[in-house]
Amino acid sequence: MAVASILFSPPLSKNSPNRILQKSQALRISSDYSQFEVRKVSYRPPGTQHNLLNEVSLSLPEKSFGLIFGRSGSGKTTLLQLLSGLSEPTSGSIYVQSYSNDGNPNQHPQLLSPERVGIVFQFPERFFLADTVLEEVTFGWPRQKADLLLRQQLALKLQYAINSVGLNTISLDEDPHTLSGGFKRRLALAIQLVQTPDLLLLDEPLAGLDWKARADVVKLLKHLKKDLTILVVSHDLKELSSLVDFSWRMEMGGILKEEPLPV
Ligand SMILES: Nc1ncnc2c1ncn2[C@@H]1O[C@H](COP(=O)(O)OP(=O)(O)OP(=O)(O)O)[C@@H](O)[C@H]1O
């Protein structure tokens, strides 16, 4: 099923939503460059006595690829949950800071809002609910009553997501559960990209895939890296090393240290 047949793809004109989308994206980053910044974040789950994260700090410039590695149970997933807004830091802050080219902040830091963040959990295919790829990507979207402008904007977002992950080579009528492992991961990424996030968080993106699908996902991440800021938690350091701009080790007790990959 074609994207356009569901949501109507408009011709491009001066006032087309494509231009509106580009304009709003350009407005979001008005500075010379910006960084996602985590400052002295600690986290203790409500009702417990133990900090899972202890004064974690990191900076990730826009359009760069960061990787967090470390032993199981050290707190890596917990940090992604805080960055995505699923839980709130007990202390510290997570924000976006913009800078001029001379390296000085050029406005007040903005708190990172969850709408700007996409997160793909480990084994995302386990959470697929819909009967078709299209329904899975557009889950929760208005079908009939949305006004024309909204439908046009949604159609463009859908097209962007589908094309970005290479799902345009298959029918959107396919059952998500029958896709290959690599295509299931593409679909999981499309579900996030349709929200046009600025920061994409991936928890163990290669886990459970065969060698071919793993190579496929690495290639896809290389492509996505051109337009997105990506932060990955993974044990697959060798396979991801060619993508990595910044890396950190999470030590037991939730202590984060910037460190080169040990590969
Ligand atoms: N809500 C919670 N309450 C108490 N302890 C928790 C809670 N959530 C996670 N934990 C514990 O926090 C620790 C860190 O978990 P987390 O999943 O962040 O580790 P991880 O580094 O991502 O591990 P893995 O590599 O195995 O995915 C674990 O010991 C986990 O059992």
TrEMBL record:
Stretches assigned to the ABC transporter domain: 36-263
One of the record's GO cellular component terms: chloroplast envelope
Pfam families found in the cross-reference section: ABC_tran
Gene3D superfamilies, per the entry: P-loop containing nucleotide triphosphate hydrolases (3.40.50.300)
Keyword Transport (UniProt): yes
Keywords: ATP-binding, Nucleotide-binding, Transport
Matches recorded under SUPFAM superfamilies: P-loop containing nucleoside triphosphate hydrolases
Molecular function GO terms recorded: ATP binding; ATP hydrolysis activity; ATPase-coupled transmembrane transporter activity
Entry-linked PANTHER family: ABC TRANSPORTER I FAMILY MEMBER 11, CHLOROPLASTIC (PTHR43553:SF1), HEAVY METAL TRANSPORTER (PTHR43553)
Protein name: ABC transporter I family member 11, chloroplastic
